[in-house]
């Protein structure tokens, strides 16, 4: 009798579990029509650089977006961009003054807004580089260099095309180049005028890199955070960053030719930032060793179960000659102090970006080749929908004004594929991306910045 009762109990539990699994909510992703933000030059005028890299912001009564219109170069990261606004949820756009940039800061719990602007590299061509033949057993690496001098590097790597990249422990650089700070604009609560500040950054073993071109020009790369700042559940500011091309591993001080990924956190409303998380490449031990740039562009999101998911780009063309490589994912259950071993999430993944909608759905976009959006299927971010394909990963070169028989990768791709995504309403977000082959009113293909609505609907199976 007891056996029969137990058997019936097991059957009942199994039936109930199956019913619950069958009725578990699923998520349907759909996309609306594309809306033009700005049409730029024809791709045959300059395939790569201008009219790329949209950076959107959601203000109180409108959306604004910056568009890069210079060459893609570390000397131009802080160059003046074109700015556009929409007051009808991304349907129509008009150009506005670039002074709006300083209004695009993160709204803090104390009512302040803080904006961390992109910054251009600094020309240090006039600095004298101590030659390598001065490197002797008696050379002291702990000594700070004098003004006007660059010490012997801590490490060196190279890019295709002839760029040498020297890496320096920031503490060894001359005082004028050794500051550990980010430029920050603050609009205090109740005010409208931004105040320039310099946030102090506690970055152990901060490594500054100098790009030396074939003509001898030397540019010190900036260290501004490339990620989008977010407010954490703790009310602190969180932002993702990555190292220069090569860095010193903070665990042992040794040089690595890879990028490393970082997350910084501020508990004092942006006055100071401390490093919360650090990830070294290699992701899969030695199974994927040197055919990579390391972990560079990344983004993270706070999940409903209290964990954090972090997505990481690994490809870097100038390091490997390849424009696509796997995107990795890692997860933390202790507020970013430790992370699971990064695992391959998809075979591509340029500029991963995440946002969380009011309905609780977390969205992820990434690209190259193609542009994709996915949604988390559970509160932990360990299960995701299949990709919604916004732009095909196939050959698009035939769409050009003047198709070429032997396309380069970006002829093939037809986009900068650096997408961004921001919440729109309870169930949807706006996706921003570029299309090099979008026709104007006369049918001429132009490098165009677009946005389109992505809707995430929960549905029962």
UniProtKB/TrEMBL annotation:
What CDD domains does the entry give?
A: Sialidase_non-viral (cd15482)
Q: Which Gene3D superfamilies match?
A: 2.120.10.10
User: Does Signal show up as a keyword for this record?
Assistant: yes
Q: Which SUPFAM superfamilies match?
A: Sialidases (SSF50939)
- Signal sequence residues: 1-19
Q: Which UniProt keywords apply?
A: Signal
User: Has keyword Signal?
Assistant: yes
What this protein is called in its record is: BNR/Asp-box repeat protein
């Amino acid at each position: 009798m007891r056996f029969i009762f137990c058997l019936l109990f097991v059957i009942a539990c199994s039936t109930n579990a199956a019913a619950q699994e069958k009725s578990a909510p699923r998520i349907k992703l759909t996309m609306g029509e594309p809306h033009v933000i700005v049409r730029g030059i024809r791709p045959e005028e300059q395939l790569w650089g201008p009219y790329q890299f949209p950076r959107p912001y959601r203000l109180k009564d409108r959306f604004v977006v910056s568009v890069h219109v210079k060459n893609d170069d570390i000397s131009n990261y802080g160059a003046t961009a074109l700015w556009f606004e929409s007051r009808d949820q991304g349907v129509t756009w008009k150009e506005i003054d670039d002074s709006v940039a300083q209004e695009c800061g993160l709204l803090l719990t104390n009512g302040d807004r803080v904006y961390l602007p992109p910054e251009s590299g600094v020309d240090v061509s006039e600095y004298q580089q101590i030659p390598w033949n001065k490197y002797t057993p008696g050379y002291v690496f702990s000594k700070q260099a004098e003004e006007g001098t660059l010490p012997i590097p801590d490490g060196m790597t190279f890019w295709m095309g002839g760029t040498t990249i020297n890496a320096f422990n920031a503490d060894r650089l001359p005082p004028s180049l050794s500051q550990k700070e980010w430029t920050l604009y603050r609009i205090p609560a109740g005010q409208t005028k931004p105040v320039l500040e310099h946030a102090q950054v506690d970055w152990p073993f901060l490594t500054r890199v100098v790009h030396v071109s074939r003509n001898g020009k030397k540019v010190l790369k900036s260290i501004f955070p490339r990620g989008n700042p977010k407010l954490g559940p703790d009310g602190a500011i969180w932002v993702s960053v990555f190292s220069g091309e090569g860095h010193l591993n903070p665990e042992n001080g040794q040089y690595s030719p890879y990028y490393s990924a970082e997350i910084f956190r501020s508990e004092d409303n942006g006055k100071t930032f401390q490093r919360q998380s650090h990830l070294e490449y290699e992701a899969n031990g030695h199974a994927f060793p040197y055919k990579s740039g390391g972990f560079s562009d990344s983004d993270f999101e706070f999940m409903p179960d209290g964990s954090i998911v972090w997505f990481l780009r690994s490809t870097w063309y100038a390091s490997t000659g390849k424009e696509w490589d796997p995107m990795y994912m890692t997860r933390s259950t202790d507020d970013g102090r430790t992370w699971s071993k990064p695992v391959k999430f998809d075979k591509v993944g340029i500029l991963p970006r995440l946002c969380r909608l009011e309905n609780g759905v977390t969205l992820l976009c990434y690209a190259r080749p193609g542009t994709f959006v996915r949604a988390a299927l559970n509160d932990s971010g360990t299960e995701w929908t299949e990709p919604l394909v916004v732009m095909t990963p196939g050959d698009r070169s035939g769409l050009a004004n003047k198709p070429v028989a032997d396309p380069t990768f970006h002829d093939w791709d037809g986009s900068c594929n650096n997408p961004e995504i921001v919440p729109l309403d309870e169930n949807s977000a706006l996706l921003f991306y570029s299309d090099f082959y979008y026709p104007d009113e006369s049918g001429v293909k132009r490098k165009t910045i677009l946005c389109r609505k992505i809707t995430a609907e929960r549905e029962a199976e």
